[in-house]
Amino acid sequence: MTTIQGIKQVRGDITVPGDKSISHRAVMFSALAEGTTTIEGFLPGADCLSTISCFRKLGITIEQEGDRVRVEGKGWYGLTEPSEILDIGNSGTTIRLMMGILSTQPFHSVLIGDESIARRPMKRVTGPLRRMGADIAGRNNGEYTPLSVRGGKLTGIEYRSPVSSAQVKSAVLLAGLAAEGETTVYEPEVSRDHTERMLRSFGVDVESFNGGVRVRGGQSLQSPGHIQVPGDISSAAFPLVAAVIIPGSHIVVRNVGVNPTRSGIIDVLREMGADLTLDNEREVNGEPVADIEVKYAPLKGIEIGGAIIPRLIDEIPVIAVLATQAEGTTVIKDAAELKVKETNRIDTIVAELSKMGARIEPTEDGMIVYGRTPLRGAVCDSHGDHRIGMAAAIAGLAASGETIIQNADSINVSFPGFFTTLRQISE
Ligand code: S3P
């Protein structure tokens, strides 16, 4: 349980922990590559530590201290059959990408996770992986954990994913790297492309084109030696939103990944009227990085839907907070994927913000927020979902009185030190 007091303003010059999606991939690809890789800026949050723990059980030597990691890659077929169950905790990215990798390995593995993972749909990956030839068993015919995989020889496929999901795209492409022939994944809207970018930095030929991505089987990964992980825009979003909604605020978040497939929050902030600038734009290991500066400004409600949704899917809980402080109505649509995240985020964010006096309604594929509404402190619950806990905390900073966040521990999944950062910027 953690208590948040409403504050006068947010000020500061900060960094946020490393990007979660990039940290997972850095460990996975380094383990599968020939040679040793050092990773800096790694996110030492619970999810990425689950990825490290799985690869250790698969026989890979990994040293980790804070945000520094050293992985001794043994090549694609250097993994060994695990004698223990692979427990991926709360991490959807770990289990779905691991399913792709383990489908290519000539041994048997079993994956489990926590109660939230046990409710999340896995057929979106087990379906195409079975089509490629993987032998997968799981509860409800491969929809839910526990899942077991007996990997082996796969054949490349053309896969048209019904959902825009980087986890699905990545699982199929990773399996495709060790499959016979070519593997192509098409998705309705482009999802985050960290897998494609990082595979290229490991010397893999990846063809991205309008609507899809293709790889040739039989390619090996060569360690680039060193990977620098940028700050996570999904974590930066929380202090940025706090600054935009609390009068008098001014904040700089340095060294943030601004990959266009992730930066929908920047577009939304600007369209709503935020005073936001990107400075020091550069490229680090094939990923665009910048410092983001924002100042308080009056906001207006907007409509958010279509191709932008995968570019900001993880930021919707905090965008809902933002919308409570914008003049007029904000409509979020085409975001039914929110229902299958760590919690049903349509229900959980509507429930928590309603307790604080927000006028917010759930819809089938998103929500409608009526602004501008003063928020008041309340007893909120993360529901075990890190981003719901952090969104409620940001609402608490902008609210009058005191807000209690129950089950705040879940925030360690993606943003260890979150409350320290909030204290640092609160005035
Ligand atoms: C992620 C992809 C997204 C995102 C998740 C991380 C990734 O999930 O919500 O936090 O690292 O590939 P989906 O692939 O289910 O959209």
UniProtKB/TrEMBL annotation:
<feature type="binding site">
    <location>
        <position position="341"/>
    </location>
    <ligand>
        <name>3-phosphoshikimate</name>
    </ligand>
</feature>
<comment type="subunit">
    <text>Monomer.</text>
</comment>
<feature type="domain" description="Enolpyruvate transferase">
    <location>
        <begin position="4"/>
        <end position="422"/>
    </location>
</feature>
<dbReference type="Pfam" id="PF00275">
    <property type="entry name" value="EPSP_synthase"/>
</dbReference>
<keyword id="KW-0963">Cytoplasm</keyword>
<dbReference type="GO" id="GO:0005737">
    <property type="term" value="C:cytoplasm"/>
</dbReference>
<dbReference type="InterPro" id="IPR023193">
    <property type="entry name" value="EPSP_synthase_CS"/>
</dbReference>
<feature type="binding site">
    <location>
        <position position="165"/>
    </location>
    <ligand>
        <name>3-phosphoshikimate</name>
    </ligand>
</feature>
<keyword id="KW-0057">Aromatic amino acid biosynthesis</keyword>
<comment type="pathway">
    <text>Metabolic intermediate biosynthesis; chorismate biosynthesis; chorismate from D-erythrose 4-phosphate and phosphoenolpyruvate: step 6/7.</text>
</comment>
<feature type="binding site">
    <location>
        <position position="167"/>
    </location>
    <ligand>
        <name>3-phosphoshikimate</name>
    </ligand>
</feature>
<dbReference type="GO" id="GO:0009073">
    <property type="term" value="P:aromatic amino acid family biosynthetic process"/>
</dbReference>
<dbReference type="InterPro" id="IPR006264">
    <property type="entry name" value="EPSP_synthase"/>
</dbReference>
<feature type="binding site">
    <location>
        <position position="20"/>
    </location>
    <ligand>
        <name>phosphoenolpyruvate</name>
    </ligand>
</feature>
<dbReference type="GO" id="GO:0009423">
    <property type="term" value="P:chorismate biosynthetic process"/>
</dbReference>
<keyword id="KW-0808">Transferase</keyword>
<comment type="similarity">
    <text>Belongs to the EPSP synthase family.</text>
</comment>
<keyword id="KW-0028">Amino-acid biosynthesis</keyword>
<feature type="active site" description="Proton acceptor">
    <location>
        <position position="314"/>
    </location>
</feature>
<feature type="binding site">
    <location>
        <position position="345"/>
    </location>
    <ligand>
        <name>phosphoenolpyruvate</name>
    </ligand>
</feature>
<feature type="binding site">
    <location>
        <position position="20"/>
    </location>
    <ligand>
        <name>3-phosphoshikimate</name>
    </ligand>
</feature>
<feature type="binding site">
    <location>
        <position position="167"/>
    </location>
    <ligand>
        <name>phosphoenolpyruvate</name>
    </ligand>
</feature>
<feature type="binding site">
    <location>
        <position position="120"/>
    </location>
    <ligand>
        <name>phosphoenolpyruvate</name>
    </ligand>
</feature>
<feature type="binding site">
    <location>
        <position position="25"/>
    </location>
    <ligand>
        <name>3-phosphoshikimate</name>
    </ligand>
</feature>
<dbReference type="GO" id="GO:0003866">
    <property type="term" value="F:3-phosphoshikimate 1-carboxyvinyltransferase activity"/>
</dbReference>
<feature type="binding site">
    <location>
        <position position="387"/>
    </location>
    <ligand>
        <name>phosphoenolpyruvate</name>
    </ligand>
</feature>
<feature type="binding site">
    <location>
        <position position="314"/>
    </location>
    <ligand>
        <name>3-phosphoshikimate</name>
    </ligand>
</feature>
<feature type="binding site">
    <location>
        <position position="92"/>
    </location>
    <ligand>
        <name>phosphoenolpyruvate</name>
    </ligand>
</feature>
<feature type="binding site">
    <location>
        <position position="21"/>
    </location>
    <ligand>
        <name>3-phosphoshikimate</name>
    </ligand>
</feature>
<dbReference type="GO" id="GO:0008652">
    <property type="term" value="P:amino acid biosynthetic process"/>
</dbReference>
<protein>
    <recommendedName>
        <fullName>3-phosphoshikimate 1-carboxyvinyltransferase</fullName>
        <ecNumber>2.5.1.19</ecNumber>
    </recommendedName>
</protein>
<dbReference type="InterPro" id="IPR036968">
    <property type="entry name" value="Enolpyruvate_Tfrase_sf"/>
</dbReference>
<dbReference type="InterPro" id="IPR001986">
    <property type="entry name" value="Enolpyruvate_Tfrase_dom"/>
</dbReference>
<dbReference type="InterPro" id="IPR013792">
    <property type="entry name" value="RNA3'P_cycl/enolpyr_Trfase_a/b"/>
</dbReference>
<comment type="function">
    <text>Catalyzes the transfer of the enolpyruvyl moiety of phosphoenolpyruvate (PEP) to the 5-hydroxyl of shikimate-3-phosphate (S3P) to produce enolpyruvyl shikimate-3-phosphate and inorganic phosphate.</text>
</comment>
